[in-house]
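Checklist before submission:
- one chain only
- standard amino acids only
- sequence pasted in full

Submission:
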Amino acid sequence: MNNAPRAAMLLACVLSLPLAWAAPLPNQPSALQRCPASDDGADQRRAADKPSVRAPRIFGALGKERHAALKKALAAGDNPNACHGGVTPLIMTASRGDVDAIHMLHQAGAVLDAPQSAHGGTALHAALASGQWSAARALLDRGADTRQRDDDGNTALHHLANSAHHADVRGQATLADMMLKLGAVIDQPGVHAATPLMLSIEGGNLELSAFLVDQGADPALRNARGENALAIARRRALPAMVAMLERCIGQRPPRCANISTPPRYSTK
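Returned file contents:
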């Protein structure tokens, strides 16, 4: 028996039916590029210490004394890329310097550079701004992006240079060295066209400023106010900084800042 006509008729019927496309998957928290701003305007530290009833459960498991709870939450399938108060668990953990929790979250699928905070910041930015050098190193070792810019245009190197935590200047210079090796742009302009060198000078950080100059930072660049590095140092009344910069502007010899690390990075 010839079934060709019957098959042709069946195919025609099928093709005449309206196609019912599968509904798109809902946006998953892990797919977000940015956390929404907090509804009540609470900052990330208050949101961390006093999570509201609306906070995903994982936020209540954050803290150096809560690793067992965090491990349990992650094992139960809690999303490591959830958002609350404009931040992620990884951003919050990085700002507190909890290296063990960073490892746990990353192993469970936390994305290093997304979702960003409500202000476009990353976990690396949060660690650097808080002076948590060990957390920053852990993130860099795992591949955090040194070129990511926040809403103000600042990169990780800006956050390092702008940090008020100067107790471990050697650790700070080591982090700067790591970031430059990983592709950070040494003269990237940020907010008000300030470079990392300018921010370091504003903060009176002679050691980091000298390191950046030796690695190729350009002291002649100007910010939005028209100031170069030397003008900033003079305005801030920093004689040692002025002396260091006066030796370097226009000369660019090796180790012009009188430190032992050889120059390796260009301003391009």
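Reviewer check: DSSP finds 13 helices and no strands in the chain.
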